[in-house]
Amino acid sequence: MKYKRILLKLSGEALMGNQQYGIDPVRINQYAEEIKKVHASGVEVAIVIGGGNIYRGVQAEASGIDRVQGDYMGMLATVINAMAIQSTLENHGLYTRLMSGIKMEAVCEPFIRRRAVRHLEKGRIVIFGAGIGNPYFTTDSTASLRAIEIEADVVLKGTRVDGVYTADPEKDSSATKIPNLSFEQAIREGYNIMDMTAFTLCQENNVPIIVFDMNASGNLLDIMEGKENIGTLIS
Ligand code: UDP
């Protein structure tokens, strides 16, 4: 396998599938299947999940809720998603641990780096919920930070599109996919891959990012096997 330990970032919105809100049972089961395939091939898998399908901190101010309060609400939303993923993975016969950036003893372990690494070594899938536990951050930043902490080989950003395009492929039919990018190039060209905090964390710590289509069956495993032309590699 090309990668031994991966950090998979899934957005909350991806879990919605075709729904307007919440968690699509078909979609979450598809994701579990994809993760199971990769795990079965011996790759250690850690997951960061977003919360955008339930709540985002930026929504808060518009509704008269304090921004920081809103961010904590967003973090709690990620825990709901993380619990759903944990349960779904377990239904597929996988062993998991949920670790939270905010202490929540009844539902998950606190994030302890050494413990997370040990879980991975034992073949457990580790899900990081509640972001990094601080307001004004995103789950993309969480993905970068946790990837560095657990020494993951790569951050895999699962999206609806199969990589970074010269323009938005959903709006511009002349857009073409870019197979490889350097961090500098991505910043120079203004490609919006992750927020800057998340992006520069990976850049400064030499953790490559792969943007790929998580909804296409087999993609994740293909990347692990080193197949060319899947997604965009930023390194
Ligand atoms: N959030 C936060 N700190 C973190 C991670 C998340 O404050 O470390 C909050 C923030 O309000 C964010 C929300 O949780 O909008 C949900 O996460 P995100 O928007 O990253 O989810 P995604 O877009 O991936 O679904």
What's the SSE blueprint?
Elements: E1 5-10, H1 12-16, H2 25-40, E2 44-49, H3 57-62, H4 67-91, E3 96-100, E4 109-110, H5 113-121, E5 125-129, H6 139-149, E6 154-159, E7 164-165, E8 177-178, E9 180-181, H7 183-189, H8 196-204, E10 209-213, H9 219-224, E11 232-234
Parallel strand pairs: 1-2, 1-6, 2-5, 3-4, 3-5, 6-10, 9-11
Antiparallel strand pairs: 7-8, 10-11
Helix pairs in contact: 2-4, 6-8
Bound molecules: uridine-5'-diphosphate.
Describe this structure in words.
The two termini are 18 Å apart. The protein has helices at 12-16, 25-40, 57-62, 67-91, 113-121, 139-149, 183-189, 196-204, 219-224; strands at 5-10, 44-49, 96-100, 109-110, 125-129, 154-159, 164-165, 177-178, 180-181, 209-213, 232-234. With 235 residues, it is of the alpha/beta class. The protein has one domain: Carbamate kinase, CATH 3.40.1160. The model has no long low-confidence stretch (mean pLDDT 96). The protein is globular. The protein binds uridine-5'-diphosphate (UDP). Residues 11-13, 50-52, 56-57, 70-71, 74-75, 77-78, 131-132, 134-135, 137-140, 142 line the site of uridine-5'-diphosphate. Uridine-5'-diphosphate (UDP) binds at residues 11-13, 50-52, 56-57, 70-71, 74-75, 77-78, 131-132, 134-135, 137-140, 142.
